[in-house]
Design brief:
The complex is a heterodimer of chains A (47) and B (441).
Chain A (H helix, E strand, L loop, with lengths): L3 E5 L3 H4 L32
Chain B lengths: L5 E4 L1 H9 L7 H12 L1 H16 L12 H5 L6 E5 L1 E2 L20 E2 L2 H14 L5 E7 L7 H18 L2 E8 L6 H10 E7 L4 H7 L9 H14 L5 E8 L6 H10 L4 E6 L15 H20 L5 E2 L12 H6 L7 E4 L4 E3 L13 E2 L3 E2 L2 H8 L15 H4 L4 H8 L7 H21 L7
Parallel strand pairs in B: 2-5, 2-11, 5-6, 6-7, 7-8, 8-9, 9-10
Antiparallel strand pairs in B: 3-4, 11-12, 12-13, 13-14
Helix pairs in contact in B: 1-2, 1-3, 2-3, 5-6, 10-11, 11-16
The chains are: A little secondary structure (47), B alpha/beta (441).
């Protein structure tokens, strides 16, 4: 494409079929610990 | 927003998208709106590219509805903040935990209570395999006997119970010695090391009991821990900024200069009456500082140097599933905090608050009504999140922060919101730079 550079195609659509296995790290978002950006959490099922 | 895709448009395509925020325009509609300003051919090109991305579900993506029970039911408890010490050997000026005692009696968790916590979570986690235990305080290294015996006990039941225990610890560093460093490096998958940055900034808040600064004691210990730590294990050098060091990018540079390349600097958690608490009027300055920090990281990386700022890390091509993004931290549901006396709370920020006590290690969880309040809170229950571009990356923020500072569990703390959105913007700029685009603030 000439006018739009795609940085990421995104994963939200394809991930919607995943109903949450609950095995991933708990993402404490409290600033008094280490506020976590949920979007950076790893999926335990990721290949 | 609903696809998670990220694009870098040129001026013309940006103008088309801005003119039609809710509906994909036809080429004729785009030309009618912007042809005079940008020229018909350019607008038609932009409209065609936008349509192609929309056809591929990467623009104008509709939200799909996930059934509420999928993300708002009670879940097995599989993560625990274990308060092994309600005591501290520092007297930090901004401590949210009342110098470690959480407004209660000072005390150390007996090793037997730690083992009981392991038995509790091994059972409460049901079919979940991965169990997280975070040793917290106060200062958890004041209770190293409990930490060590708890870890040893968990390891002894790990295989038979089919669990995988992951331990983490947050320490101010004062009691780190060779023995503690070796234990932490062997057993803790992540260690959070607290240092605010420049000596004058750190010592302004992080004081020893006698009022002297802690910088000169802890920095050599943190360096030693890092030298001995394997590259397969995580660590964070974690600072706090207050309105007394809004120039915290300088603290980032200082910490990096000490040899640490995994860095986190957090906004202080404080009630508005405190002189060091962040105020709404500070937010533009904080945004500028995040931009400055982004440019510093861009420069370091352009020189081939490795450095990470925890809040600017986002995994655009992976990351968690949609359910996780809807639910967020899991406090009070999958995640609980346990006080030295065995009382259980929704998370560490509620420890000592009787109205939030949900049970104990002896009696189990007795207040599922409180847990349900946390379980039912998600992006979907927070009206302010509905149209926010950051929602799938922040999940509506910290439950405790919303309750204490936002007005309710479903009312995001506006200061935290502002900073989260700015940090995500910075993270996206770094991602764009990684893709080869020339970007900076």
């Amino acid at each position: 494409m000439k006018r739009i550079k795609t940085i990421s195609e995104g994963t939200l659509k394809k991930n919607r079929d995943n109903r949450g296995c609950g095995e991933c790290q708990t993402s404490c978002q409290s600033a008094c610990k280490t506020s976590c950006t949920v979007g950076n959490q790893k999926c335990e099922n990721a290949k | 927003m609903e696809s998670g895709a990220v694009h870098l448009p040129d001026d013309v395509s940006f103008a088309v998208l801005a003119a039609f925020p809710d509906k994909l325009p036809t080429a004729d509609e785009a030309v009618a709106a912007l042809g005079a300003e940008y020229g018909e051919n350019a607008v038609r090109e932009a409209a065609a590219e936008i349509k192609e991305l929309a056809d591929d579900d990467m623009l104008y993506t509709s939200a799909e509805v996930i059934p509420t029970p999928v993300y708002s039911s009670l879940m097995p408890v599989k993560a625990m903040c274990l308060h092994v010490a309600h005591d501290c050997n520092l007297r930090c000026g901004y401590c949210f935990a009342s110098q470690g005692d959480y407004h209660g009696a000072r005390g150390i968790m007996p090793p037997e209570t730690g083992k009981k916590a392991i038995d509790f979570i091994a059972a409460a986690s049901k079919g979940r395999k991965n169990i997280e235990i975070d040793f917290f305080g106060g200062e958890p290294t004041m209770a190293m006997r409990t930490v060590k015996e708890t870890v040893a006990y968990a390891r002894s039941i790990e295989k038979d119970s089919g669990k995988n225990f992951r331990f983490t610890i947050t320490t101010n560093g004062l009691l780190l010695n060779d023995d503690n460093i070796d234990f932490i490096n062997a057993e803790m998958s992540n260690v959070v090391l607290s240092l605010d940055g420049r000596r004058i900034v750190n010592d302004n808040m992080r004081k020893c009991v006698d009022g002297s600064g802690s910088y000169d004691i802890i920095v050599p210990k943190f360096k030693k821990l890092l030298e001995k730590r394997g590259s397969d294990k995580s660590y964070y050098l974690r600072g706090t900024f207050t309105r007394e060091n809004l120039d915290f990018a300088s603290d980032f540079e200082h910490i990096y200069g000490l040899g640490f390349d995994e860095i986190s600097i957090e906004p202080v958690t404080a009630t508005p009456d405190k002189p060091y608490a962040l105020r709404d009027e500070d937010l533009p300055r904080i945004a500028e500082e995040y931009e400055k920090l982004t440019n510093i990281i861009l420069k370091l990386r352009s020189e081939g140097k490795k450095v990470n700022f925890f809040h600017f890390m986002v995994d655009l091509d992976g990351g968690p599933c949609a359910v996780k993004r809807l639910k967020g931290c899991g406090a009070g549901n999958e995640y609980v905090a346990v006080a030295p006396d065995g009382s259980i709370y929704p998370c560490h920020q509620f420890v000592g608050m009787e109205e939030y006590r949900i049970g104990s290690l002896d009696e189990g969880i007795i207040r599922d009504d409180i847990r349900r309040v946390f379980a039912q809170s998600s992006i979907m229950s927070k009206p302010a999140c509905k149209d926010c571009f950051a929602k799938y990356n922040c999940s509506g923020g910290c439950a405790a922060g919303n309750i204490f500072y936002g007005g309710g569990i479903d009312s995001p703390n506006t200061q935290a919101c502002f900073m989260q959105k700015k940090r995500l913007e910075c993270a996206l700029v770094l991602k764009a730079a990684e893709s080869g685009a020339h970007v900076e603030f």
